[in-house]
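Render this sequence as a predicted structure.
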Amino acid sequence: MPIIVNLDVMMAKRKISLNELSERVELTLSNLSILKTGKAKAIRFSTLDAICKALDCQPGDILEYVNNEQKTTNR
């Protein structure tokens, strides 16, 4: 998938646990875990907004587009 979720990176930078973020954004641990591991198929803008507010970051800090051609040639 060409969209990489860097939620774990931002959580580490902000020193916030999955449990704490779950409480702040009012999202279940399982749904937040699915997003964190990159297994989510979609994300609501309201969820992205809440995560960005809780982590004091921009959507681009969490989501990254990687072209499949670049991905294979850079390895």
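Summary. The mean pLDDT is 90. The first helix runs from residue 7 to 14.
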